[in-house]
Amino acid sequence: MARQFADAQDRAAEFETLRPTLFSVAYHILGSVTEAEDAVQETWLRYATTDVEPDSPRAYLCTIVTRLSIDVLRSARARRETYVGPWFPEPLPTDAGDSRSWGTAPAVDPVQAAEFADSVSMAALVLLERLSPLERAVFVLHDVFGFEYARIAVIVSRSESACRQLRSRARRHVDAGRPRFEADRRERSELADRFFAALQDGDVEALEVFLAADVATINDGGGIAGGAGGVYGARRAARLLANAVSPLLALDATLRQCELNGQPGAVVRDRDGRVLAAWVLEILDDRIQTIRSVTNPEKLAHLGPVGDLPATARERNRARRSDRRDSD
Question: Which residues does the annotated region (Disordered) include (predicted)?
Answer without folding.
Answer: 302-328
